[in-house]
Records
---
Amino acid sequence: MIRKRIFVHGQVQGVGFRPFVYRQAIFFSLTGFVLNTSQGVKIEIQGKEDNIGGFSRTLRDDLPPLARIVRLEEEELEPETGEREFIISESSSQKGHEVLISPDVCTCGDCLRELFDPRNRRYLYPFLNCTNCGPRYTITRSVPYDRSRTSMTCFPLCTKCRAEYENPLDRRFHAQPNACPDCGPEVWLVDSEGRNLARRTEAILGAVGCLLQGGIVALKGLGGFHLACDAGNEKAVGNLRRRKNRPDKALAVMVENEEDAKYFAEINEEEKNLLEGIQRPIVVLHSKEENGISPEVSPDTNRIGIMLPYTPLHFVLFHLLKREKKEQKTPPVLVMTSGNSSSEPISLGNREALSRLKAIADRFLLHNRDILVRCDDSVAFSVGGRGGFYRRARGYTPSPIFLARSGETVLGTGPELKNTLCLTKGDQAFVSQHVGDLKNLQSYDFFLEMCAHLQSVLQVQPKAIVRDLHPDYLSSRYAEEQDKYPVYTLQHHYAHIYSVLAENRFQGACLGLALDGTGLGEDGTIWGGELLYVNTKTLEQSRIGSFRPVPMPGGEMAVQEPWRMARAYQYQIWGERGLRDLQSKSEEELLLQILEKGINCPLTSSCGRLFDAVSGLLGLVHCIAYEGQAAICLESVRDKTGKTAYSAPFKWEGDFLYFGNQELFTAAAEDFCRGGRVQDVSRGFVLGLIEGLADWAAEASRVNGVENVALSGGVMQNLTLFQLLPKALQKRGLSPLVHSLLPPNDGCISLGQSVYGQRLLEMGKINF
Ligand code: ZN
Ligand code: ZN
Ligand code: FE
């Protein structure tokens, strides 16, 4: 007979962990108890040695799907006499809550079987869930995770639901959002004036009818509203784009299952796993040609973002959609895009959605389970066996990133675009869901909400704040307004590099390639093609080299109109002669004046602007409709077969190492002027860039004796760079470090800021 105490830390509450422990204890004939505490779950078990061993193994290998163990502490105790059974003890409520809230996850197989079983009391009930699935993060106001602290608190359990909730052997034991048609939330359908049209299944049928007729439906989801329309209906998609004021940028679609997804896109094993995973991100895939999806859905590329249903409402919607359009051979496919006007955060409440979306949607499928935390869909991809994110939100937050070392709580307030914020707690970093572009008050309110919410659910207060060097970002201003904590700044591209290092739990000296769009540099110019040296232990950091700076004629205008960057490069390389081919005389004169006098021509070493310049040179986009469009168009015309690449030689100037971006542009421009095809120019440029960057890093490695190279920045979203740059570095004997948990774009900045702050506090530096 032995007795053991096991303490389990991690995501172990509200995920069916105690019933799981209970069942295993019964199975292995053990006595003892299991208990929720504020730090985690405490288990004591007593029985034969073999059985104890068996129990410990299942704890390691057979966890319930949502449980995640961060740490196990085991201790042997004196056996107790007279203990007869195994029980689930009442929770002890102590202060200092350390239990993690689970992210929201998709409906599980058991629930789906009930959902489509006509004899089940939850048949077609769009809010069914159990301890293995359903909403969590988005319906929880505060900790500990308990029904009274979720938006389910206004729905008292009926007798049947209560019995399930209280039975340790039931799949719904302590499933906080447990509900049924008798006691839970319900859906209804209204028109754009808010007039009630139908309730319950009839409402979903009404939405289906609207979609099939080419209408637009605003759909209340898990983390906010979606706007849906038939993706096969060109007119419907066009209407949606026009009303939402979102030209060109790709829209995500939803299909019923992986089988249907294969009809529209190529899917390999990893992509299948991503699609079908419990997080259910939008997965960006290669679309098949002539697949019945309107080209309007993704006009700039042959890639398409597909996700599978993840709430019972989605599943019922597709079920009814299929029933209604049985005779058609194309599987149903719906555009599912965030319910907002461009650049505003996703809508949350019924009334808010009705007022903000009434000019967009024809019908609103509403429900009365409040969304407490806004959370967009995550966007992920996988190529060549490696995956990554474009956006990390629903399904992943608030799961922490585990750090190499523990430290004080630090708040990183993130950048301006694609903002996230991050709070550390011990050796875990909690990066918020995608907040968006902090350019309007709605986004800023969301930022403030998340800032307060993260502190509340993690029960921590920051000891310091780290912000971007740019003083005018709303996230920077917020930091400056906090007088309770010391505020430090960290330059944007160093933050990129600290972030990718933190994800990889790398400690020590490293080179960093920050290949990015925009970030204010330490010298007041705009950086974005940087070769950095960073030491995470000593916080020594320096800029070893950069792209050769080029003027951005018109400042922000040059970002919107890529041809301006092309002219800036031409002017810098060939002087006035370089601008001869401009079509419009007035345009030419104006640009020449701007460049000559240097009026509103900030200098930039940005790699993103080099992509713009080449794209502008080829005339692919005149004025962009969304960030990154010029680069995306350049990538989509690229010839995929040839190997020839332009060269981009680096050059030492004193002890500063310039990248050959001018030479690279020159080669592209000369080739193009000689009549080279856009496909070949695009290829020559991208492959040349990759080889050039690898040579550049190798030279810095030779001089600095550092072999690790961290890669970050928005340009790393380019899949050719993502795949080939690490290989090119390896070929030169270097070890690349890349993002896999966070996007390489500015969504990663807040993590870099917080870990930097942690180390700063640890080293006791007060000023920097
Ligand atoms: Zn379930
Ligand atoms: Zn009920
Ligand atoms: Fe950036």
Note: The longest strand covers residues 509-520.
---
Amino acid sequence: MTVYLDYNATAPLHGEALAAMTAALTITGNPSSVHGFGRAARAILEDSREAIAALVGAAARDVVFTSGGTEAIALATHGLAESQGPILVSAGEHAAVLAAAGERVELWPLQPDGVVSLDWLADRLQHGPHPALVVLQRANNETGVLQPVAESAALLKPTGCRLVCDAVQAAGKIPLSLAELGADAVILSGHKLGAPAGIGALVLTPEAARTMRPLIVGGGQERGRRGGTPNLVGAAGFGAVAKHFRDPDSRHSLALREALENGIRHIAPHAIIHGESALRLPNTTCVSLPGIPQSRAVMALDLAGIAVSAGSACSSGKMEPSHVLLAMGVPPPTTREAIRVSVGWNTSVAEIEAFLAVWGKLAL
Ligand code: PLP
């Protein structure tokens, strides 16, 4: 038996993405070519762009295809930040955001439940230097904790400071609207919702789209905002899942998360579910089992054919203490006991039970 409970790292390829990609693979044209082959390719690209725009209620012309979430973050940070001043980002942002902000980074602390404080932001805007840009994720990849993006945007509006929302984990799991978020740009990544890795998008407001500086210049593709022949097959897959998840139904994930967390509480009342009291994604549980290192838990589960992760998936595969949990004030030893279980459309109750059976033995 193999049980995949690591959707936040990457989701399985969705059947609709596979079908759309299989069709796109037979297309020969370059979307920039004016002949019939090119027009056929462009039709696929533009259909996908429409679907991605619709996913967040934006205009198709303001969608820029990228190679994934990381590139979209780099593009937004480079292209939308004012030339001087700190780049204010929540302490729970993905490593891609922290790295893109680089030396200009200023951290917006998390509260113990994992949520940023709006009072802190109001105070910071009144008393500190004008931020060049603010980046705030809609949902955290490790804990699933949701951030008050719209409320933050309302505080930022009078200051003229732009807000970028990393919605990589939120897309397809909870409703998303650029207008309701009040953000200037939203980051999306295909492989978190059933498209392959290597395709993502930056979705902008018309004003941000007009003024953003490109990061990769080249043949003028993507209205001059991202040079390079686009990944047509990836875009086709991304468009298909964007259509499928346009009105996300969280009932399946929520029922599984409830079964999982009820089981955890029953088996080990002393286990700590991080961000438990905050609003969270319906599919994510981050849990520490006191006395059991995450490496041991991940390995024991892997031996039983069950895939979960220790914090975020990173290229080195090393298990560093999570900067997200540390920022929530979780003691370092407890961060090293945290594992993340993230479910999706293919997950069944039987798989949650299989997880609990193995995890429960660790808790004995
Ligand atoms: N932002 C968040 C919140 C993520 O979880 C991830 C991926 O784990 C990224 C950005 C990076 O996306 P990608 O893997 O497409 O570069």
Note: The pocket of pyridoxal-5'-phosphate is lined by residues 68-70, 94, 96, 137, 141, 166, 168-169, 189, 191, 200 (CB under 6 Å).
